[in-house]
Give the backbone structure.
Amino acid sequence: MSRIGKLPIPVPDGVQVALEMGNRLSVTGSRGTLQRTFAPSMLINVETGVITVDRPSNARLHRSLHGLTRTLVANMVQGVSGGFTRELDLVGVGFRAARQGGDLILTLGYSHPIRYTPPEGINIEVPVPTQISISGSDKEVVGQVAAKIRSFRKPEPYKGKGILYRGEKLRRKAGKSGKAGKTK
């Protein structure tokens, strides 16, 4: 039995869960509504205050979908009640971010600033010019937006410059160290 798949999902107050056509789940809360269609073989049971996910057999496909389905449902419930946040740090001389209307303006050492428009349902805040906070109710979309912004200037291992996730440890490389020890 899947350790994650067998855990029940508690539904907090203020969150409504509706199961349509057996495999389409709709979750509504204070942060909006999320809908997703799951594999028809997974058995999703919506009861008062708790959601459980069961599998019909012990086949390899059903075992692999069991924990995945439970985690996706749990992420939907947490997203509409509390939301998700990813934070990025800009490391480098002159690297900074700013908000202009609904867009994010990034100055990352290129000859031009980069303008990024976030998708619907995503909120981007810039508390400090070298920090970006991305929040929203859908965990997948928040992660995709963070990865897209990070791709504008990935961290490089020699000087450590770039856009890093908050708390990310960057493995540094030594560079050309053989030049200093040579004698003629």
